[in-house]
Amino acid sequence: MASTFSGFTNGGMVQSNLRIRTCEKEELDFSQVLRLALDTFTRNGLISPLMTSDHVRQILEVMWKGSDHMIIAEESNRLSGFLSIKYAGDGHAHFASWMPYLRNGTNAFQLAPQLINAGIRIAKEKGSRMAWTRFDLLPGRERGYSDYSSWYRSCGFAEPFQTPGFIRPLQRFSSFDFHRLMPSAYTSGLDIKPLNDIDFQQVFDIYCKAFSSCRDNEFHLRTGPENRETLMNREGREYQIPEASLALTDGETLVGFANLYFLKDRPNLANLCPIAIDPDYQRRGLGTLLLSKSMEVLSAKGYQALTLFVDAENASAIRFYGRLGFKEAFRLYIHTLELS
Ligand SMILES: CC(C)(COP(=O)(O)OP(=O)(O)OC[C@H]1O[C@@H](n2cnc3c(N)ncnc32)[C@H](O)[C@@H]1OP(=O)(O)O)[C@@H](O)C(=O)NCCC(=O)NCCS
Q1: What pLDDT digit, counting tens, does each position of 171-186 carry?
Q2: Is 114 in the same domain as 38?
Q3: What 8-state DSSP symbol labels residue 96?
Q4: Residue 194 to residue 242: CA distance in whole angstroms
Q5: Separation of 18 CA from ligand 1 center, angstroms?
Q6: By residue range, what is the domain housing residue 205?
Q7: Which residue's CA lies nearest to atom 33 of ligand 1?
Q8: 80: which of 63, 73, 183, 319 fits an S-S bond (Cβ 3.0–4.6 Å)?
Q9: Which residues, listed in sequence order, are joined to residue 48 by a DSSP beta bridge?
Q10: Same domain, 148 and 193
Q11: pLDDT tens digit sequence for 18-28
Q12: CA nearest 47: which of 146, 144, 169, 131?
């Protein structure tokens, strides 16, 4: 059921004819929403070869499909802005539009925090424990980020968690790279199998063991419900690239795995999340072996690049990726707000 919010004072005077309310998707026309988003991207100088208007449409379609709530602002019954929220089912409310989309001519610094505050209120009503939102800071998007960040911080969200994003082109990849990098990898008795042939509990045990000493663990569990779902449930399987998601076994024992999935809004990019090698088997070239095999498969399937995020403090993983030819290309900023 739709509810109306009033009396928000954050950011200055509220126009008397402005109404902020939650609404069901069905009430809105997607082309109207898309127009508003394109307006916002264009105004903030965010349309570029890396983010074409076609990408914006794809991003919006994914957001639209996944969102549980739309918070909208209307002025004289005309859509002036919106924010979408997705509930992860584990107490996390994801503010899925990375910033409120606003009609040209609206006072963004006034309206954006009002939409965010309305989102916080509805997330609390729904019993969420945490709200979070993320922004991929690609070169040239600094201006968009500084507005976004100040709006979320003005609504009480914490200083962001920073996660470097790495990328490696796949066109030039061949197994030659692996032999050059790791001529003496320990491989006797080891087998590479499709990850989906392995019992999920074994996979999850290795995940917990490998990540127990990294902050990534807390990071994924607290702020990356999408990532966790990718690993843990059927929703994730929908995005998985099964041919490239591989497990390494030593006899019957699972030694490590790499899970690859595609990004609905960037069909040529694959994403790695996560890779984990049993600590008892690390530093023997097995991570390199596994990821190389996955990259070979991705390359053969026509993927142009592989991306991944790693916590800024996970020095060994950063070294591991650097050796495999990954370069830092962008940063992910995650703002969170405890609701309970
Ligand atoms: C990152 C990880 C997958 C690497 O697997 P691995 O089998 O140990 O890696 P490899 O043996 O192929 O290592 C290749 C290179 O990576 C670097 N590296 C790997 N582990 C390292 C460590 N603990 N300290 C420093 N460098 C390390 C080294 O450069 C190493 O080459 P070298 O041994 O010749 O110096 C593994 O350490 C792991 O599961 N870590 C915990 C989970 C994690 O952090 N995943 C990635 C987060 S996105």
Answers
A1: 766 655 555 555 455 6
A2: yes
A3: -
A4: 7
A5: 54
A6: 165-331
A7: 283
A8: 73
A9: 51
A10: no
A11: 899 999 888 88
A12: 144
- Which residue's alpha carbon is at the smallest distance from atom 4 of ligand 1? 287
Token couple for 79: 């859509």
CA 93/CA 25 separation, integer angstroms: 17
Tokens of 189: 């008795």
Per the structure, how many domains does the chain have?
2
Any atom of ligand 1 within 6 Å of the Cβ of 323: yes
In a domain, 147, yes or no: yes
Let me know: does 309 contact 332? Beta carbons within 8 Å: yes
Q: Is the peptide bond before 183 cis (omega within 30 degrees of 0)?
A: no
pLDDT for 133 beyond 90: no
pLDDT at 225: 40
State residue 77's pLDDT score: 80
Domain C-terminal end among 131, 157, 183: 157
Whether ligand 1 lies within 6 angstroms of the CB of 43 is answered as no
Name 254's bridge partners.
249
What is the residue with the minimal CA distance to atom 47 of ligand 1?
310
Q: Which of 180-184, 187-191, 217-221 has maximum average pLDDT?
A: 187-191
How many whole angstroms separate alpha carbon 298 and alpha carbon 290?
13
Nearest CA to ligand 1 atom 1: 317
Stretch 266-295: mean pLDDT, rounded? Answer: 89
Q: Is 224 in the pocket of ligand 1 (CB under 6 A)?
A: no
Ligand 1, atom nearest to 284 Cα: 11
* Ligand 1 centroid distance, CA of 323 (Å): 10
Mutation test residue for ligand 1: of 283, 295, 308, the one with most atoms within 8 Å of CB: 283
Residue 270: both structure tokens together:
């694959």
Q: Are 276 and 69 in contact (CB under 8 A)?
A: no
Are 292 and 320 found together in one domain? yes
Cβ count within 10 A of residue 213: 11
pLDDT of residue 180: 57
| CA dist list (Å): 248 to 115, 125, 191, 292 | 47, 45, 6, 12
Residue recorded with tokens 């890779």: 275
* DSSP string over 255-322: EEEEEEEEETTEEEEEEEEEEEE-GGGTTSSHHHHHHHHHHHHHHHTT--EEEEE--TT-HHHHHHHH
